[in-house]
Hints:
This protein has strands at about 20, 30-35, 70-75, 90-95, 100-105, 105-110, 130-135, 140-145, 145-150, 170-175, 175-180, 185-190, 205-210, 215-220, 220-225, 245-250, 250-255, 260-265, 280-285, 290-295, 300-305, 325-330, 335. It is mostly beta strands.
Amino acid sequence: MAAGHRRWGKGAAAVAAVVVVGAGAASSGPAVAVNALQPKSAGSLPATQFDAAGSAAGAANVPQLTAAGGIYQWGTRGMSGLPAATTSGLSAVSAGGLFGLALKNGAVLAWGDNNFGESEVPADLSSGTTQIAAGWLHGLALKNGKVYAWGNDWYGQTELPASVSSGVTAISASTVHSLALLRNGQVVSWGSRADVPDFAQSGVDAISAGGDHNLVLKNGVVLAWGSNAFGQSAVPAAAQSGVTAISAGYEHSLALKDGGVLAWGHDNYGQTNVPAAAKTGVVAIDAGWNHNLAIKADGSLVAWGNNSYSQATVPKPPVCGPVTGASAGYEFGLVITDRSVPCRR
């Protein structure tokens, strides 16, 4: 697929990174999502041994992570050649179409495909970055309230509007559009989908961009707009109160309520069939193209949906130490895990 001539029929919603405590912060509290309300208090994840759901499928070429907070990636479409810097000290990850982003001490790291410059991080992002978001073929980052964008721009998804040059508190990248949340609670959208309905002009607490639909969280209520071909924008009654986190996939949607995952929209790969393990004790969620990841309070990981490339099978080992970050991409997954905690045999 030659650079500059690549088209797709079904792309994907880039998902927001799942991080610890807050983007760019040290691992000192419970796992929460970038697209979730921040907790008022922070406890610590127990550094205990436990069994993670899943099997060893997709666990080939295990990287030698020598310290806590390193990346593990799996799925056939997981890219080889992880940067050496990803073995420790990470605070966030974000899986895109065929590339990945990580955040370490305020510096953005990138690897994978680079047909459109999606792995060429702007020099300004070598320090001070607080959030990252990987789209299909473009990346976003947040630094000092200003959005940075790079990579594919066929639909203007990296052409930043003036309103996101300051005062931004959250970002989300999708297939060919992007979202930002301003300090005053207003959502800004650009790229292939630039419309923002009246209900997202103020008071919004969290954002998540899907394939061609968007989710926002407002006072615990999930609101949506955009494509509804598979019911991905038809918010169920259960998600209209008490929700604490949201994540939009390509043609499906997730919400977190009372520690349980709610899902709706396209179910062609079982991505809205929430397993029992994800119905209680969940603290963070991430919707990929057609599969999902959920982190539980004990640091274990649950995955479900499309498993064509083992992306919905949690590798065990090595993913059995506390997971402090996770992101579901196109056909691969990324986690930040503590390899110092051995797997229970």
